Every structure is written in structure tokens, then in C-alpha cells.
Amino acid sequence: MQVLSVVRKWFLLAAAGLCLVGVQQAGAAVDKKLTLGCLAYSEPMVQWIKEGLEPLGYQVKIMMFDANQLPATALKDGNLDGIIANHRPWILTFNRENDCHLEMVKPYYFHSFFAIYSTRHKNLEDIPNKAQIAVPGDPTNMSRSLIILEEAGLITLGEKTDIFYTVLDIKDNPKDISIIETEITQTARSINDVDAIIATAYFVSEAGGIDPASFLFEDPQNKDYALGLIVRDEDLEAEWAKLAMDTLHSEPYRKKFQEHFKGKYTLYP
User: Fold this and answer.
1) Domain ranges of the chain
2) Which residue, among 85, 88, 59, has the nearest Cα to 73 in the 3D structure?
3) Most buried among 79, 98, 108, 118, by the most CB within 10 A?
């Protein structure tokens, strides 16, 4: 009887150990469930992350949004694990305005080509008096657009009255140019309705089939507006985030990037 009792105890302990292992494995499986957000332009990139992570045991769900601020809001609220959507200066502004801590995983992935485009005029000098120029209306990109207009010689800015330049900071506007504020994903769609727009090469090409290289003036600071995988700061060193960037920076996926975007975006080295 005593032998049977010992055997029975050993069996129960072993069973309990197997149950604990099962619970730990289930927990690990749950930890490997990811939801990534994107906009239409960045959907291929999160698909590439999915392709790279799923053979490693991750389950990746992708959610696409149709407004520029929605992915970041969902990430802040804990409804997503990561996004590819906005450039880093935009995210830093979003953090200040929403008291949150989103950050871009290093090494940064790519940057956009931001420039002045027009279907009405072939040269910057051709932009007439009282021209209308459409620009993104969010604070970061509005400020960036005004700086571009100053660098292009079309306006002069005074001192900033806030963190970012606004139209109220225009000191000199010799051509009496009207600045038309638009939602960033819609700016390029205005190209045939105004004298010029300030937008990324990607949106210009997608909206109007325009050659990305046919700009009137390029933003000299393009490389400072990094784009890539954004997470909550506690996930910056997460294994999945590092593996995601390893996938994107691998040679096969760098090649896919170049073939898909055809110069509309630029990879970092």
C-alpha cells in the first residue's frame, strides 16, 4: 500500500508539472500574438513583417486604417502592438499632445521624399501671384511645408509663436500665396485643383500617376523624417520588434521594397 501511495504521489506531481508546462507554453503562445496597424501605403511592409515572423511561431494580425492619426491612437490605447504609418517627428508631436510614449525601433527603415509638385507649372518661378498651394494641415507637416516654402524663396517666416510654424508666422508673402490646409493623405488629390502642392512622392504618384522625380523643389531635410516600425516604448527591446526589423533590413526584403515602391520612398543604408 505504501508503494502504491508513493507511486500515486509521484504521478500527481508529474501530472501537475505537465500542466504547469502546458500553461507556460500557452502563455508563450499568447505572447506571440501580434496586431500591427498600417495605412494603405505601408500595408506591404507589415505583410513582410508577418511573412518573417510567422515561421518563428508568431501569429500576426494586420489592421489597415484610412486616416493618418488613427493607427497611432490605436497603438497608444493598447489596441495594437506596432504600426508603420507616421514619420518620427510626427510621432514625437503626437506623444506631447497625448501624454504617451511611442517610439520608432532602430535602425530606422526608410524616409519619404517630400517636395513641391504641380501639374500647372513646370518651374518654381512660374508659380503666379495669388497662387493656391495645398499642404498637409497637421502641425508637424504644416510647419515643415512652410519651411519648404521659405527655402524655395516663396515666403519669409518670422519667429515661431509656438513649437511649430503656422500661417500666422508668415512675415513676407510677396506673391500673396494662399495656403490651403488638407488632411495629409488627401493633399495629393488636390494637385489638379491648385497651383501646387507639398506632398510625398508616394502620394503624388498614387493620386495622379505623376513621376516622383518631377518635383519643382525638394525638401532639403528629407532624411530627417524617418519612417519605420513604431511601438510603445516598453516594447522597444522586445524580441518580436527586433526580429521584425531584421526581416525588413534583410537583403530579400530590401529588394522587395525597391521593386514595390520604385523610388517613391528611400531606404536608409
Assistant:
1) 33-109+228-267, 113-220
2) 85
3) 118
Write down the residue that cell numbers 517630400 correspond to.
114
How far CA 148 is from CA of 3, 112, 161, in Å, comes to 86, 15, 18
Residue appearing with cell numbers 519648404? 148
Q: Is the pLDDT of residue 24 over 60?
A: no
Q: Are strands 156-157 and 230-232 parallel, antiparallel or unpaired?
A: unpaired
CA distance 217 to 114: 9
Q: Identify the pLDDT of residue 250.
A: 98
Strands 265-267 and 33-38, by their bridges, are unpaired
Provide the pairing of β-strand 217-218 with 265-267. unpaired
**CATH topology assigned to domain 33-109+228-267:** D-Maltodextrin-Binding Protein; domain 2 (3.40.190)
Residue with cell 521624399: 113
The residue whose grid cell reads 504600426 is 83
Grid cell of 181 as nine digits: 490646409
From CA 234, how far away is CA 240, in angstroms rounded?
Answer: 13
Mean pLDDT of 147-166: 94
Residue 202 to residue 42: CA distance in whole angstroms: 11
> Where is average pLDDT lowest: 36-40, 88-92, 184-188?
184-188
What CATH number should be reported for the domain whose range is 113-220? 3.40.190.10
